[in-house]
Amino acid sequence: MGGLWSTMVLIILLLLLLLPLLRRRWFKFHGDNRMKKKTMMTSCRVPEGSWGWPFIGETLDFIASSRTSTPVTFMHQRKSMYGKVFRTHLLGKPVIVSTDPEINKVVLQNHGNIFIPSYPKSITELFGESSILRMNGALHKRVHASIGRFLKSPELKAQITTDIETSVKLSLDNWKNCDLVYIQDQTNQLTFEILVKVLMSLGPGDEMELFKKDYKEFIKGLICLPIKLPGTQLYNSLKAKERLQKMIRRIIEERLITYKTNDTTSNLAASSTTTAAAITTTASSDAIDVLLCNVDDRSDDDKCQPLDFVAGNIIEMMVPGEDSVPMVMTLAVKYLSDNPLALKQLVQENMDLKRQKANSGNSYAWTDYMSLTFTQNVITETLRLANIINAIWRQATQDVEINGYLIPKGWGVLASLTSIHMDEQNYENPNNFDPWRWEKKGIVASSNTFSPFGGGQRLCPGLEFSRLEISIFLHHLVTTYRWVAEKDEIVYFPTVKMKQKLPIRVIQDGSLIW
Predict the structure, then answer these.
(1) In terms of C-beta distances under 8 Å and separation of at least 24 residues, what long-range contacts does 492-496 make, across chains too?
(2) DSSP assignment of 21-60
(3) Contact predicate 133/120, CB 8 Å
(4) Among 1, 272, 360, 431, which lies 20 to 30 A Cα-Cα from 134?
C-alpha cells in the first residue's frame, strides 16, 4: 500500500512539473500554427498575447478580475504588456480583445456584417434563433430603426412623461414610512412597471405581478450552466419563458381582434401571419405594434410563428432595459451621496425648475427634464463610471484586417468599453466621479471614447428614453427628500450590482438645505 501511494505522489509531481510544458505545447499547436498560416497570406499580424492554460485559457483570471473593485485590471495588465489590442483565450475560444476606440468603432459599425453577435450558450438557448439580439442584415436594420423611432418619438415621450412622473411620485411617497429604503430594489420595481407599459401596455395588477414573477425566473438562466435537464436553472428559465410568451401571445391576439373590429386590418386574428401594411394604418402605441409591422420581413428560413416572434422579442427587449436603467439610478444616488458638491448643484438646478413650474402653473414637459444640463452631466458621468455594459462580444465571419491587425475567421472579438472609459489618456482622473468634466471643451458625450450604450448598428435604441426616465427620477428624488446613504460597495460580477442594495435613510424636508 505504501508503494502504491508513493507511486501516485510521484506521478502527481511529474504532472505538475510537466503541466507548464504541456501548456506551451498545446497552445503552440492550436494557436501559433493557425496564426502562422494566416499571417503568411497577409501583411497584417494577429495581435500578441497569451493563450493561458490548456482548455480554460485565461478565463479564471478574467472572472477573478471581474470580482474585484477594479474589474479593468485584466485589461490594463495585458494592455501594458501587449498594447491596446491583444489576443487571449476566454470561455473556450480564441478572442481578440480591443481597448482601442478606433478599432472598437469599426467592430461596432460592422459594415458588411463581418461581425456577428456572440453570446454564451445559455443565452442563445434562452433567446432562440429568432432573437433580435441575433438578427442580422435587412431585418435587423428595419426592426432596430422602427423601435428606435418609436422610443425617440415626441409623441411617446409626451405620453410617457406623465406616466413616469406618477409612478415615481407614488414610489417616493411610500418611502416616508420606511426606516431604510433599499434603492436598488425600489428602482428595479419602478422601472420594471414603466418598461412593461411601454413594451406591451400592461398596467399594475395581478397580471403584472405574475408576469414579474416569471420574468425574474427567466433572467436567472442568462448566466448558468447550459444544461436543460428538469430541475436545472436553464430548464426552469425556459419554462418561465414559455409562460411569458403565452401571456404576451394572448395580449397580441386581443390586440389583433381590436384591429379587426376597428376595420384597420383584415383576417389578422384568424391567421397565423400578419402584414406590415395592416398595422401601420394605426399609430404604434407600444413595442408590440412596432414588431407586428416587421413580422412579414423575416427570412423564409425563420420557422418561428409570427406571434411567437413578437412575444419572444418583447421578452428580450426587457433584458437591457430592466437591468441597466435601475442600476444607473442606483449608482447615481451612490455617487451623489459620496460627492456633496455635486449633490448640492444638482439640487439647486432641480429646485429652480420646480419653483419655475410652481410659479407658472404649467405641468412638466419631457423637454424640461432633458434641458437640465447638470443633471444630464451627472447621468453621463454615472454611465461612464458605472460601465453597466462593460464590453461587446462579437465573432468574425471572415478574416478581417483592421489598422494592421488580423482577426481570423471564427475568432471572438471583445470590444472593451470599460477600458476606454477608465483610460487616463481619455479622461483625467478616470476613477473620480466628476460630472463637471463634461462641461470642458473637447469632452463630448457622443465620441468614440464614450460608448455606454454600445454603438454602430446595434446602438441601444432606448438611450434617449432611458435618460428621460432617469432624469425624472432624480428630479423628484432631490426635490422631495434629503437622505443619508449607508456604507455599501459595487459588485461587478456577474453583473453590476450594489452588495447591500444601497440602503439609505430618507428625511422629508421642504427646505431641503444640504
Answers:
(1) 492/66, 492/67, 492/68, 492/69, 492/71, 492/390, 493/63, 493/66, 493/67, 493/71, 494/66, 494/223, 495/223, 495/323, 495/388, 496/327, 496/331, 496/386, 496/387, 496/388, 496/390
(2) HHHHHHHIIIIIHHHHHHHHT-S-BPPPB---BTTTBTHH
(3) no
(4) 272
Per-residue pLDDT at 276: 46
What mean pLDDT is predicted for residues 292-317? 69
Distance, in Å, from the CA atom of 194 to the CA atom of 214, rounded to the nearest integer, reads: 17
DSSP state of 253: H
Report which DSSP code applies to 224.
Answer: S
Please identify which residue in the block is written with the cell numbers 484586417.
Answer: 401
Residue 325: predicted pLDDT: 93
What cell was used for 178? 420606511
Mean pLDDT of 179-186: 95
**Surface-to-core class of residue 385, CB atoms within 10 Å of its CB (0-12 exposed, 13-18 middle, 19+ buried):** buried
The percent of residues above 90 in pLDDT, for the chain, comes to 47
pLDDT, residue 364, reads 95
Q: Average pLDDT of the chain?
A: 82
DSSP 275: -
User: How far is Cα 458 from Cα 211, in angstroms, rounded to an integer?
Assistant: 27
Is residue 44 a known part of a binding site?
no
Do residues 245 and 211 touch, judged by C-beta distance below 8 A? no
Question: Treating both helix axes as pointing N-terminal to C-terminal, what angle do 137-152 and 463-478 enclose, rounded to 10 degrees?
Answer: 30
Give the C-alpha separation, 12 to 10, whole Å: 5
Quick: pLDDT tens for 260-294: 776 544 444 444 444 444 444 445 688 888 888 76
pLDDT at 189: 92
Q: Are 406 and 400 in contact (CB under 8 A)?
A: yes
Q: What is the pTM of this model?
A: 0.84
Cα distances (angstroms) measured from residue 344 to each of 98, 336, 338, 347, 379: 38, 9, 12, 5, 15
Averaged pLDDT for residues 55-70: 84
